[in-house]
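Aim 2 progress update. The chain analyzed this quarter is reproduced below.
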Amino acid sequence: MSRIGGPPDDTGRLPPDDWQPATYGEWGDILKDCLAELTKGLDDPDPSVRSEAISILADQGSDLIGAGLLKDWTYLVSRLTSEPFEVRKPLFGVVDDALEYSDRLSDEERASLEQLAIDIGGTSFSDRLRRVVGSRDYLRQNDPKQEGEPDPVAELANHALRHPDQLEDELEWLFGGEAHAAVPFGKVLGRADTNETLLSRLLDRWPSQPQDDRVLTGYLMGIADRRGEEWLEDKLDAWARDPARALLVAITTWRALATPRAADRLRRLLREGHVPPEFLNNLVYGFWARDLEPEQVKSLVEATSDSNAEPAVRARLHFLDQFLGERPEGLPLMREAAEAVLREMPRYRFQTMDGHSWQRLAEVVYEGRPIDLTRLAVNATLRQESRVSSLHDEAKKLLHTAISSADSEERRNIFLEVVGPALEQHPAILWSLDDLFNPYLLSPFDIDTFVGWLEEDFDKRLPVVARGIPVHGQPLADPARTILVRHGNREEVRQLLGSNYITGGWSGSESVYVERKLQQLRSWTEDPDPNVRAWAHEMLEYFEGRLQRTRLLEEEGPY
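Predicted structure tokens:
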């Protein structure tokens, strides 16, 4: 009998010679055997075994249904209708997806799944609340199938108002972080609760369990829909005097109000320290400050300026990047704050999107100021030398932007005032700002500027920058050629530039790569300058020997 499966087996051995892939019928038998094992797992007295069996039923449910084992899978799942909803939730998701997306179900199969959805989803208020309000996309607002159907959230809210004790039993869950649709649920509650009987119950939960604000803030937004925005502004201003409710005030303001009065309220809370400065990062979501005047935005940033802790700096970075990127007219007012955060942020390890925001904000703030932009990029790289960070890429891009946008005099000053001194004081920065195999950092600068700086202290400066001098071109390009013309009689100069020419990478045949190097060197042996010719002949001898060795190795082939 041939073994069913694929090579190698679980022992690491290859299959026997008569191994054949399983047929469709054999796979069906295998899957049924798996379901039989799952049945045993559901009956196992060990809770961990039973839990694993349920997980497999959920994880592999779609595949089992697609393999034609709907009836078998449905039978096993139907045994779990008394489990807590958290256990049933992934199984319900499989059923819901099958009903939504499968177009191969017979009428009988669809009816079976619809019944299972009711059984496994549950009909109690608690089950329905978790199923609907615990979903991220419960409304499916653009689904034409839902048009004209009762709003399940409204039904649950009306039930909660009629049975407040049942809602009380669910408040721990609603404030616990799993109620993904709690804001719209809370809004419906707030609109429908005309006597605001639930307000005190929800507020009582805040001090003891502020893990998730959404049902409470949604409820307040619902009341504001009835009573007007001014009611909510007044309420939040009053609550802002209580430090215990400061965070609730800030979150509700962020979710519901983006007015000058709201901005002033947040400013006071931030300035007084009742809300942490990193709360500014919340305002990035949804571009809360979109319609505020720059003066109001500036006051919010300044309210966090006393803190240079990492979360506060990061929050200011993303907030300013968003606002000034969309509203550049605010730059004159916020330039000082923006420059400060650009300088502060490289003290910390960059996280996802930090580098993008830092680079983008820098390009806005330092537009038309290439020397200052270069200084920012170089100083940021120096600060990051001891850290593993993606900042180096952003610093390289900023440096390229600065040099590309500079005129000839600005380029000269960029090198003499920023790049040159940085290289001399911190040689390792060359490895961060330049490309390892294709050095380019020194190429954009005027040859007279660079060589003049180099020759002011040649013995000290050449070793510092030698790795960044590209050796290429037809004819040999500057600054390598000028250095050879003026100083090629010195052995250390020839060795340093030769090392640069030898260093490189290739794909494919090494001998082809070496032949290209030789072809370039032969042209350099005809240079009008004797120092260049002498150096080219030295390198030619090296590469001719390397070519012979390489061809021998390639002829022998791999070991």
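Residues 177 and 224 are 24 Å apart (CA to CA). The radius of gyration is 35 Å. These observations will guide the mutagenesis experiments scheduled for the next reporting period.
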